[in-house]
Amino acid sequence: MLFSCSNNLEEIKEVTSKSDGPDEITEEVIMLFTDMGKSKLKLESPLVYRFLDLEKMKIECPKGMKVTFYDTLENIESVLTANYGLLLSEEQYLKVQDSVVFQNNKKDRLDTELLNIFFEKDSIYTDKFVKVSTETGVISGTGLVSNSNFTKYELLNIRDSHYNVNEKKEDE
Description:
Layout: H1 9-17, E1 24-35, E2 38-53, E3 56-61, E4 65-70, E5 76-82, E6 84-88, E7 93-104, E8 109-118, E9 123-134, E10 137-146, E11 153-155, E12 158-163
C-alpha cells in the first residue's frame, strides 16, 4: 500500500503568510519623533509591537508607555503615562488607556482611563471619568477636551470640585 501527500504551493503561501501578529517585537524602546530636526515627543515602552501594512504603521504598547512632549525650544511641556497605548502613524492618532496620567509643566495632573489624541488636529478627547488636580484644587467630571500636550483644557460635565483656600491668620 502506498500513500502520498501533496500540497498546492499557493495554499502553503496563503496559510503561512497570513498572520494577525506583529511584524516586529521590540523590548525597551525609546522612539523620538521630530519636526524639522527638533524633538516633538519621545515615546518609551518596555515592549512594542509594530505592524506594517503597506504605507501604514501601527505601534502597540501592551505593557505601557511614557510619552514626553516638548515645546518649540525642546523644553519638556508635559508627560503622559498609561498601561496601554496604540499609535496609528497614518492617522496621527494615539489611544492610551488603563491608568492614564497626564501632567503638564504647570503641574496640572489629569487622571483617567482613556484618552484619544489627534496630533494633526492638536486635540485630546475623552468621554470617560476625569480628575484634574492643580495647585489650587481638584475638579472631576465626565469628559475632557484639550490640546494634544495638555496645556489648555476644558472639563465637560463637571461633577465635583474642591479648591484649596489659603486662610490668613489674624496675626499675619
